[in-house]
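thread: overnight batch results

M.L. [08:02]
morning all. the overnight job finished for the chain we discussed friday. pasting input first so we're all looking at the same thing
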Amino acid sequence: MEISIEEELYLSVGHALFAQQSQMFGKPCFKANGKAFICFFQKQMVFKLTAPVHTEAISLQGAALFDPSGKNRPMKEWVQLPFTHSDKWEKFAKAALEYVAGGEQLCRN
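M.L. [08:03]
and the structure it wrote out:
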């Protein structure tokens, strides 16, 4: 099965951060030290963020809080970004990694 360009970029970003591939709510994700920090949903990348980076991400056109159930119960720390902002995916992934690591620098970039 061929993967989409969106998923290919998501995988590239996660692997570049030396994170472990896993699943969260049946969705592909990457974890660091057992904690999910990015995932892939509806051909979009999702990031676990805190202020001020969260505010920056959610203000982008097309951004939304992540609602994996589709039942209007979004996960407040998680921001879903469309491919139109793919140029920012790596930046937000690094911020998400640092957030779940408690400020520790886990990525090797």
